[in-house]
Amino acid sequence: MRKALKFLTRAALVLIVLLVLVGVWKREQITRLLAVNSLFSEEKIVGNFSNMDSAFLTRSMSRGDGPVTPLPIGENWAPDAAVNTWIKDRAVTGLVVLKDGQLRHESYYHGTGPKDRRISWSMAKSYISALMGIVLDRGDIASLDDPVVQYAPALKGSAYDGASIRNVLNMASGVVFDEDYLDFNSDINRMGRVLALGRSMDQFAAGLQDSFAPAGKTWQYVSIDTHVIGMVVRGAAGRPIPDLLQEHVIAPMGLEADPYYLTDGYGVAFVLGGLNLTTRDYARFGEMFRQDGMWNGQQIVPADWIAASTRPSAPTAPGKEQYGYQWWMAPDASEGEYYARGIYGQYIYIDKARGVVIALNSADRGFRGDGVNDQNIAMFRRIAADL
Question: What are the residue ranges of helices labelled H in 175-253?
């Protein structure tokens, strides 16, 4: 009995030591996994969204060594009671409003400020769209109708085999991908754990095998489609996305702060939602698009790509939100009215006819509510009309 007790005691000590060693060895992965699990909690969401680099693997980009491009100050616009109620209800953290390139309003809430680099979430999709237009214009990609596997051969044999670049840009890949953030076992949450544990996003995408429709026939919002676009751009240009974006977009724009991407364990940028910039720098990107890609006398993004990517082209249902090449349009959008949108209330809204750009960062845990996006677009239009 004594020998058995001694054996069990020693075994327990060995197990404890092994668990401690595993904990130390996997400390970073465990920390990131815990961060994923509490990322959107009510008490942490605001701070998390301003400090994503404290919990995840990241890749910084240089803003360049040129001067910051100023945002000229225009006549001050002040929110009225209705706008202030909306700001409170939607847990807005940063609001920047431009009219004809002039800064008409800037405000921050919940302890955030102008230097905070806020997570873009799916607004990042519109940045990779811009980069696609640049790479296409350079001739690295011959046609949007080329198959994605031509530039991303790792996808051969996956559900993406047979889809064109255009199909995937339009979110019409037909690939089965569950985007339910509330389901622990959904594809979007499995993907989050891939990121947190430092695994490969490319392998995750290549592992998707099921389709619900032929490519190009049906629109369905599939976030991993944007990662596939990133794989295509990397394959075509032969360079990482952060290097390409830094050279062709970030450095020429004279941003205020060095942006950064979240990455997987292989240094691959999380291009579908991992970009982090200040709210003013998001506004600069929107203003560049409002000016048809021209910025500081330089054509950053080809004007014809901006026109093509920001008009409805995806096979979306009539009367519903429309989709282009990783940009959104309201069902009743006027000419030149479109927006980038991310979960929890991130927007870059552009109304070219009125000369208005609105950059919004939020921590809106109610963003999924019925009609919330419609309310936000209505508020942007109200602000634009009031300037």
Answer: 187-196, 201-206, 224-237, 241-245, 251-253
d(CA 232, CA 238): 10
> pLDDT tens digits, the chain, 387 residues: what are they?
565 555 555 655 655 654 555 454 455 666 665 666 788 999 999 999 999 999 899 999 999 999 999 999 999 999 999 999 999 999 999 999 999 999 999 999 999 999 999 999 999 999 999 999 999 999 999 999 999 999 999 999 999 999 999 999 999 999 999 998 888 889 999 998 999 899 999 999 999 999 999 999 999 999 999 999 999 999 999 999 999 999 999 999 999 999 999 999 999 999 999 999 999 999 999 999 999 999 999 999 999 999 999 999 999 999 999 999 999 999 999 999 999 999 999 999 999 999 999 999 999 999 999 999 999 999 999 999 999
Q: Determine the residue type at 135.
A: V
Query: With contact defined as beta carbons under 8 Å apart, do 55 and 35 qualify?
Result: yes
110 φ, ψ (degrees, to nearest 5): 60, 35
Residue 171's nearest CA partner among 10, 368, 313 is 313
Phi, psi of 150, deg, nearest 5: -65, -35
Scan for tokens 């959107």, then name that residue. Answer: 40
Rounded to whole angstroms, the Cα distance separating 211 from 341 reads 25
Question: Which amino acid is it at 363?
Answer: A
Query: Is 212 exposed, middle or buried, given 0-12, 13-18 or 19+ CB atoms closer than 10 A?
Result: middle
State pTM to two decimals.
0.92
